[in-house]
Specification:
The chain is of the alpha/beta class. Helix content is about 15%, strand content about 35%. The strands form 2 sheets. Strands 1-4-3-2 form a 4-stranded mixed beta sheet, covered by helices on one side. The chain has a 4-stranded mixed beta sheet with strand order 5-8-7-6, with helices on one face.
Length: about 120
């Protein structure tokens, strides 16, 4: 049997328990992502959900003490240099990533040490 993947549905990253307001300030306030309501059956577990293009970003809660991972979502954006300048003006520290032919990219960490990558593909 061949498994046919239709599309990426969502990505989940995590924040410390009780940090939803700080996450909302960053993901809604700085990045401008549109928050969507979690299903009623999942609200008690905490966290936030966002709709970004045709995928969702799920932000769960967990004990994050000493946690540092290389896992990350990568979002394709337009006008990447302007996006980078905007983030840096907001105090977000950005970092160059290793070169990939035909792709301009950088990464940054959210307030909870989740690595986020933004990239733009050259036409």
């Amino acid at each position: 049997m061949e498994i046919l993947i239709k599309r990426l549905d969502h990505i989940q990253i995590c924040i410390p328990i009780g940090a939803e307001d700080e996450a909302r300030a960053f993901y809604t306030g700085v990045l401008g992502f549109a928050e969507i309501e979690k299903p009623e059956t999942l609200k008690a577990s905490g966290g936030l959900w966002y709709k970004i293009g045709d995928i969702e970003l799920h932000i769960g809660v967990e004990n994050r003490e000493g946690y540092r991972s290389k896992s990350h979502p990568a979002f394709e954006v337009e006008n990447i240099e302007a996006v980078r300048r905007y983030l840096e003006e907001k105090g977000v520290v950005t970092q160059d990533e290793k070169t990939i032919p035909g792709v301009t990219r950088f990464s940054f960490h959210d307030p909870f040490h989740n690595r986020i990558e933004f990239l733009e593909k050259q036409q």
